[in-house]
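Sample entry (297 residues):
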Amino acid sequence: MQKINYHKIREFIIDFLAINIGQIIYALGWAAFLLPYHITTGGMTGMFAIVYYVTGFPVSYALLIANSFLLVLAFWKLGWKFTLKTSYAVLTLSAYLELGQRLMTDDTGNLMQILGEGQDSMACVLGAILNGLGIGIVFLTGGSTGGWDIIAAVVNKYRNISFGRALLILDFMVIASCWPIFHDVRMVVFGYVTLFVYTYALDMLINNTRQDIQFIIFTQKPDEICQRIISETCHSVTSMNGEGYYRHQDIKILITIVHKREAVKILRMVQETDPGAFVSQSRAEGVYGNGFNTIKP
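Predicted structure, serialized as tokens:
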């Protein structure tokens, strides 16, 4: 009988929960803050928000139709795992947006402005932050919310361009289209403000979770520390011979790079194994290779 891989099951459950949490946060940003105050931004959701303001056609339905075509591109360029997660994300996003709009609609059929009238600036900032955080959470699971995110993921695969920057380039045209349609400077200005806050929140979330830490460890117990790092993390260690000049004593120098979330674990390993070790910790940016980011030309 094939042994059950509990690690993969746990990973699947975490990804499933993360996608739903990210979608709920993203839908909340639109339904509670952006749509009621007639604020748009870039992306496919922003484009269909403009359609909604003009025609009243639900954003959720428009997204579902358009994303069905983009998912074919995702399957072709990004593989079935990304496409499967994104397909689920597209369906849940449409459902959460529809649910959010219904909950925010009053008896007259208009979306409620929960911050009160004239609070467009606050709604713009709050909606943008929630959008950035929501999409960032979904991206970290290896999926996307569909729309421009699929195109940004394709660009990120072949070029060393951040998600936020790729989305920023794609989104400028959508916001600029507000002027010939509505002739409203306010909508264009708020659209660009929302876009910048949203992409900043997205990049901050993704970059902070992907920061790596480099450790240089001077120790008399190199074998024990190396074995613990290799067995308790997914990383390896480089060992070099050194000499303490003051006492002319031979010493081993260990170098390892780990993810930011594993830094405390490494420090505890060293402290428990060799309390007399000398440790240097520094932030490593742009780490490529096995266990980290893929080198992109």
